[in-house]
Design brief:
With 321 residues, the chain is an alpha/beta fold. The chain has ten helices and eight strands. Helix content is 42%, strand content 10%. It is globular, with a radius of gyration of 21 Å.
Length: 321
């Protein structure tokens, strides 16, 4: 990854980043580059017509992203680069921004603007949780905080307000518009959380599930959902022992729903777990919960975030008894 970024930046430096089509429209207003779809949606909603917003990545997730020369060109002319931080995108964003010739670029890690007492403890690559204060010998092995903060509506609203303040600082003439759109978005997200909790509360069955990987801590807190366990540790398929443990957890906690993600196949561990639960007489089902890490370019509109979160809750509610 480091070699790829360095090579792209060297090429860009020699060529002056003039090759290829400029992705930015030739119009006034701040240029905002968001790291991935959720941040694009929040920023585009806050920006309205007063700023232009692009998403650095779309159909490739933040865990698998490798930048191209087009990505470098996007960064070269951006005024503001919005990332999550918290170990999700730090390495790529720091390298891109630090090596860029765009000296006026401001990088804002929105996840790190959130109050620390609202953050969930991180998970290391072996799948074990650690307290934020716990020391770890391998710094790449341990993420201090869970970075999936965008899956909680209160955290998303806080990030939207931070985006508004950043845009207001860049474009004082439209500060009122940025702030009013962020406030309106915050109100809608509050209502969406209320609606979502009501949808789930109307069911006699409590929402309990096995997540595909450890990404739903903030979502579960936001909508009062219980995540019993995760199917996969980062980069690891579940072993027979892990499957047996998950079956036991489902029996103990009364969970029968297995969260799947549209970015990944349900074959493999998910299918094995489903079959094992059914053999135990549990009415197990898959429920798709999109972590919003990728999006089709044509689907990426300012309302993308609100649409997708509502769909996640609706799909979960529809499978509850």
């Amino acid at each position: 990854m480091k070699r790829i970024i360095t090579t792209l930046l060297l090429i860009c430096g020699v060529a002056g980043c003039t090759g290829g089509k400029d992705p930015w429209a030739q119009r006034a207003g701040p240029r905002v580059l968001a790291y991935f779809p959720p941040l694009y949606s929040l920023a585009a909603t806050v920006a309205g017509d007063d700023a232009q917003v692009l998403s650095l990545i779309t159909n490739v997730g933040p865990h698998d992203f490798e930048p191209s020369s087009r990505d470098v060109r996007m960064l070269q002319r951006a005024d503001l680069f919005l990332t999550i931080g918290l170990g999700l995108d730090n390495a790529v964003s720091k390298k891109l921004a630090g090596s860029s010739s765009n000296k006026s670029l401001k990088v804002v890690a929105l996840g790190e603007r959130l109050p620390k007492d609202t953050l969930v403890e991180g998970t290391c690559s072996c799948g074990h949780k650690h307290a934020p204060s716990e020391k770890h010998d391998d710094h790449d092995h341990h993420i201090e905080y869970d970075p999936h903060v965008w899956l909680s509506l209160p955290e998303a609203a806080t990030m939207a307000k931070a985006i508004a303040e950043e845009l207001a600082g860049l474009d004082a003439a439209h500060a009122t518009g940025y702030r009013s759109r962020a406030a309106a978005l915050s109100e809608r997200l509050t209502q969406l959380q209320t609606d979502g909790r009501a949808m789930l509360a109307r069911k006699t069955e409590k929402a309990k599930l096995i997540s595909f990987h450890g990404s739903l801590s903030y979502f579960s807190r936001c909508f009062d959902v219980t995540v019993v366990d995760s199917l996969e540790a980062p980069g690891q398929d579940p072993s027979a022992k892990k499957i047996a443990q998950l079956v036991e957890s489902c029996q103990t906690h009364g969970a029968r729903l297995i969260a799947t993600e549209p970015q990944y196949s349900v074959k493999g561990g998910g299918k094995v777990l489903l079959e094992q639960l059914k053999r135990k007489g549990i009415e197990a089902e898959f429920v798709e919960i999109d972590p919003l890490e990728t999006a089709d370019a044509e689907d990426l509109t300012p309302d993308y975030y609100e649409r997708k979160v509502r769909k996640n809750v609706e799909q979960l509610a529809n499978l509850l008894k």
